[in-house]
Specification:
The protein has about 325 residues and is of the alpha/beta class. It has ten helices and twelve strands. Helix 1 runs parallel beside helix 10, helix 3 runs parallel beside helix 4 and helix 4 crosses helix 6. The radius of gyration is 19 Å and the shape is globular. The two termini are about 20 Å apart.
């Protein structure tokens, strides 16, 4: 697969000399913070078309979000359209060939780790080893309360859940874990993941999230940190990982500014990076200079066709210029 997750590898972005790129999919989550107007009337066919365009264009991954239920107090901002990540990634596995399948991020504290492992191991099995499991602590108290999960203790719960998932997503048919909240032994689960080690990326930019990514993760998914703050975050990750004695490489991510390849003849937004492919690539290579291995890009667009055209243009004209 082109740039995606491979059996035994920590995921896209691990290849030396290449700044990998992936994208959060439209349609499947429709927060007013980032959804484009056309997405409100879009559906499954649009979602599939965008994923297939990313697959053809050499994107390292496509990503989906995770929320079970949105309270009324947040609905005006977050919306209530949030596709289930496991069902969505499994569907997209069947209609794509190479692109990695990322949960960005699964709120794994909402579910027992064996249930989470069963679902995501199946996605990895069905996709031929393309899963990247991104995990995070979550931020909606009502969601935790409705599902009987511990919101106040979600950080400690996530720490243990990451360890439990590491065991449950390994190659042992009968995984074992003993912790303060969860314990399992002598319980077999098949199918096993295709990958020897499913890449486990930790999301968030708080001190606790950085510590968790550095000491327990294969990768770090930041929370949209501005460029100016990334160098200090990355230095802290390296410091924490070295102090913990973890020698495996950590895939460091970043979420870029919105992009538009070419000169937009409409108001694409003040913060949007626009222009010729060479100029966009030069700007994006600055992330690599900071120590970033993979970038998550988002394109301003007014329709599905404009988005798929942007994806194709980025893959053909910008991607090849991201060698570092």
């Amino acid at each position: 697969m082109s740039g995606g997750a491979r059996p035994g590898a920590p995921g896209p972005g691990a290849e030396p000399g290449r700044l990998a790129y992936g994208m959060q999919l439209p349609v499947q989550s429709q927060s007013t913070l980032y959804a484009e107007p056309w997405e409100a009337g879009a559906g499954v066919a649009d979602l599939v078309a965008v994923a297939q365009a990313a697959d053809r264009a050499g994107f390292a991954y496509v990503a989906t979000c995770d929320h079970v239920a949105i309270p009324r107090r947040l609905a005006d901002t977050m919306g209530t359209t949030w596709y289930d990540p496991v069902a969505t990634l499994a569907h997209l596995a069947a209609v794509t060939e190479r692109v990695g399948l990322l949960s960005h991020v699964a709120v794994v504290g909402l579910r027992h780790p064996l249930a989470t492992a069963k679902a995501y191991a199946t996605v990895d099995h069905l996709s031929g080893g393309r899963l990247i499991l991104g995990v995070g602590a979550g931020h909606v108290p009502e969601e935790f309360a409705a599902l009987g999960a511990d919101f106040e203790g979600r950080g400690r719960l996530l720490d243990e859940t990451v360890d439990a998932l590491r065991a449950a997503l390994g190659q042992e048919e009968f995984p074992e874990h003993r912790g303060p909240r969860y314990e399992f032994t002598g319980l077999g689960q098949r199918p096993r993941p295709v990958q020897d080690r499913v890449p486990l990326w930790v999301g968030g930019s708080s001190p606790a999230a950085l510590r968790r990514a550095a000491t327990q993760g294969d990768g770090w998914l930041p929370q949209g940190d501005p460029r100016s703050e990334l160098p200090s975050r990355i230095a802290r990750l390296r410091e924490l990982r070295e102090a913990a004695g973890v020698e495996e490489p950590l895939v460091v991510g970043a979420i870029t500014e919105p992009l538009y390849v070419g000169d937009a003849d409409w108001r694409a937004g003040r913060r949007t990076l626009t222009g010729k492919p060479e100029a966009i690539a030069e700007s994006l290579r600055a992330y690599a200079a900071m120590g970033v291995h993979q970038i998550q890009v988002r394109f301003r667009c007014r329709s599905r066709s404009e988005l798929t055209d942007q994806i194709a243009a980025f893959g053909a004209d910008v991607g090849p210029l991201l060698a570092v």
